[in-house]
Amino acid sequence: MATERRRRLRTLALLPVLLMLALPPRAHAAQAWWQPLAFAGQRVDSVSTAPGRLLVHIAAGYEVSTDGGRTFSSIGAAPTAATVLVSGGVAWDIRDGVVLTGRSADALHPDPSAPFLGTSAHLIAAPAAAPGVVVAVGSDNHVWRRDPSGRWATSFILLPAGGLSPPPQVTALAAFTTPLSLAVYMGTDGYGVLLTQDGGNDWTRADPGLPENVLGLATDEPARSLYAATDQGLLVHQLQTIPAPPVYHDSALLLRWLGIALVALLASVAAVVSLRLALPRPGEAVPRQ
Predict the structure, then answer these.
(1) How far apart are CA 101 and CA 99, in angstroms?
(2) Which of 106, 153, 162, 262 has its CA 20 to 30 A from that of 78?
């Protein structure tokens, strides 16, 4: 009798485990925000794009890709690149610390309310989806924003990460120059990439999967992609929503929760039955040890 009771107890104890094994596999989480693309483990000093071309600079020199970063080939020197930003039909530039704007690169004039950014300032971005919005960085690492009315104000000041270390430097600004997104992306050499979608009023970290030291950013409108040059290689972000918890698709999540609830219920039943089997029945003698 005791042997039969022990056998029943073992069977009931294994029941929740067998049910867990029978549950549908866990749904896959959404794709990581940043994906490695090329030059893993190598320092990529800069990245830029042109129609049908992706250009990077590494220790060995300049490399160019014409297939979206799947393959690269060495080139002798960097092609001449346009220095004036043209976004949504409006040109923007910084020369000797002065913000310039106009309808073309040949008809630039000082933006009336823009602050003096310092002679070495050169980082500026303007999302085409938000006409009149501009973000620029001064020589002193001060981040400025311009609203559609033309008014400039402080947007962001980077603080030290901790201890006695200095604040990270802003290394890059990027935005889509066709109306794909309101986002402006800011690369830093300590905080990865920060993102704003309201013209620089608020910034959030946008670097899941990205090294902390970002050295350059570039957008690719036809591919709906953002490239990041980092001290650990070249990474790519496909345009999507702000980073969020893993997303489960279809009915996989519902089935899993139903399975978990069923296992919990059966485990409770098994515990009650096991307890009843283990306790002596009324009138039954308790076995001696």
Answers:
(1) 7
(2) 106
pLDDT of residue 157: 87
* Measured distance CA(8)–CA(169) in Å, rounded: 67
Q: Are 185 and 226 in contact (CB under 8 A)?
A: yes
What tens digit of pLDDT does each residue of 155-206 get? 988 888 776 788 999 999 999 999 999 999 999 999 999 999 999 999 999 8
CA distances from 67 to 42, 54, 223, 281 (A): 20, 8, 11, 77
Rounded to whole angstroms, the Cα distance separating 52 from 66 reads: 6
278's torsion region: left (phi>0), alpha (psi -120 to 50) or beta? alpha
The token duo for 81 is 């690149």
Q: How far apart (Å, rounded) are the C-alpha atoms in residues 92 and 123?
A: 11
What kind and span of H or E run contains 3?
A: helix 2-22
Give the helix/strand (H/E) hosting 260: helix 252-278
CA separation for the pair 231, 57 (Å, rounded): 12
pTM here is 0.73
Closest to 186 in 3D by CA, of 148, 145, 149: 145
Length of the chain: 289
